[in-house]
User: Fold these one by one.
Assistant:
Number 1:
Amino acid sequence: MKYVFLAVCTLTASSLFAQERNGDPKLTESWKPVPPVVNTQAAVPGDAIILFDGKNMNGWKHKDGSAVKWDVKDGILTVKGGTGEIISQQSFGDCQLHIEWRTPATVKGEGQGRGNSGIFLMSTYELQVLDSYNNTTYSNGQAGSIYKQTPPLVNASKGPGEWQTYDIIFTAPRFNDQGMLKSPATITVLHNGVLVQNNTTIWGSTQYIGLPDNIKHADKLPLILQDHGDPVSFRNIWIRNL
Ligand code: MG
């Protein structure tokens, strides 16, 4: 009896379903706006801003405005420890960022002292760069972490001396006129093509000691690449404003 009842219900539901699907299919078509065409024939999307193509450091400077002192050789940019972080000439808010990085092939140090650098979105929020291949450290400080906040979902690290990729989708925080946080920043990160941050909320500015701050800042700010003393290399850096 139960099965007969179920069968009747199913038939009734499916005929209702069919009735609802009668009518004009055009009513649910949306033709505007037309998404802009992006050329994807080349390695870099046609609408991307190239921040480092291996040839020059025009897109970057040190904080004091001086020319970049890091090494550029054979299309590769390498941190020169002690010269300080570098910042992009242009400022960015919501963005898609692609960056390739490599920790030194010769393993030196351990924990946070092995192949440490970092990408500071809006000069404020660090996505950690670290040699996290067989290298134990605190989880929210390993490669792919939002430093001192959120560990990566998995450890997708390649070995020392191997090129690795980050593909990042970042949404900037919003503040109201009074300087209060309306919505925090969020970030999605693919590390070597593997999802490690899935629309993760960023709780505020990266702090080495203590909790994050949420102090109102501009809608767009430069990127920073960290000098943590280790000769970490970078190549093929491009960004798309969103
Ligand atoms: Mg770092």
Number 2:
Amino acid sequence: MTETTTPTKSMDDIMALCKRRGFVYQASEIYGGINGFWDYGPLGAMLKKNLRDAWWTDCVMTGCNGKLGPDGKPVRLVPVDTCIIQNPKVWEASGHVAGFNDPMVDCRESKSRYRADHLKLLRATGEDEGRMFAFIEGDTKGFETALKKLGKYVKRDLGEGDTEVLELVGVDAEVLERVVGPHASETGTLTEPRAFNLMFKTYIGATATEDDVAYLRPETAQGIFTNFKNVVDTMRVKVPFGIAQIGKAFRNEVTPRNFTFRSREFEQMEIEFFCHADDAEAWYAFWRDWRMEWWQSLGLDGDNLILREHDRDELAHYAKEGAGTSDVEYRFPFTAPGFGELEGVAHRTEFDLRQHQEHAKTKLEYFDHERGEIAPNGQPKGERYLPHVIEPSAGLDRGVLAILCEAYTRDESRPSPELMKFHPRLAPIKAGVFPLVKKDGMPEKAAQLHAELSKRFGAHGLIETDEKQSIGKRYARMDEAGCPYCFTIDGETLTDQTVTVRDRDTGSQERIGIDKVPDYLDGKLGL
Ligand code: GAP
């Protein structure tokens, strides 16, 4: 994430709407909350389910919606659902016990804890020996506070070019003595960065000794790798193929922040796609491009979404030198004008399978009948190898957050200016059915249509009905919830069997036959 300028949408407004309309609540709110944990309310749970279902259908069940792979064949994926707690040796083999660390800094004065790589230092230009004021990257208010403190310290107004920003990581202990922490008043209260393992520890069984330690999984991926052989042996799958999983992951983030963006409990949608090393580059390009297209198809199109190839120094421990790692990134209001990661697509090589093969002392090689030298009988002799892996790994909660931010719209020309422009496929409420007034048989007609639509579309979202308040207020409530279409039964319905359809985004209305409503909605929702 980079520095913040004035965002086009206010995160405070988005969070307030999320709370007010039941998308996202603070976890344990009645007890004062718990940092880094969020609950989804009814609309949020449905939105999340719709995004999860879209991924499941488009990636797993239809093999990338029937798109052919670089080999010209259909893309094959199978699902698994593995445990959150695994044998702790899994995390030794994967490198998480030794290497899944963030550098952490504590402030002795304010008792706050920070990710060292998120802290920046502000100092007056040319004052190399002077005080420096730390702020959290991307925190506009924090930056302004640091600037004010620095101005007071140097006793002058600071304009453009009067200040410079340094990284905290890499400064030595002597320099750290001159730093004022983001929430401190004195210098020298920040500790030196130290590694902090992000895995949540727990104990298995009643004795709870160090021998009973286990971890909550920090990624769903390892449950896929440890089952690779099981899937090959039981499913008649042939490399290239993928194994997919959706599930919770847990990371004891040093500084959870930005609403659900960096949480301590979150859900991942991961694919480990196994292929021969020679084909890895082509599959990497395939997945990178298709994953970007997929997010675009759900309404995250335009400038707010980018595909960014990683720099060399960003590569994870498993990523192949020279091979690709890309992120699909979204411009969240709190990262603007920069971007935050939604999904990573990485070439993990054969790293994980090799690690598990060595640690578990179990052969995980794949025998490929279609490769190898050609035998005298004209058939390939076969080749035994550890497949390479392309991993598209998406955050479901981050996806929901991006969808919420993208959908949030203020239209000051409307009596109620806030609306959520969800892609109809994702909208938690698919349609509203309203009697214009509570008499003349309109409620009964509305109830009939409501029942019919609920039966047909209920698997994908709610069909709402409501008789209270003016029709304008009912439309406004639906706009805020992101319901794309409302059908109103009025006086004309009773004579000519037509209803009004109101479009959320334009506010425009048209009339269609009441018997045409289910097919009309079906066409619009594109399910
Ligand atoms: N198996 C690879 C892996 O876990 P990652 O980049 O660490 O890679 C994948 O995580 C995705 O999971 C990220 O792109 C992000 O969307 C999501 N994610 C990671 N940490 C998260 C957190 N603390 N809160 C919410 N989502 C997170």
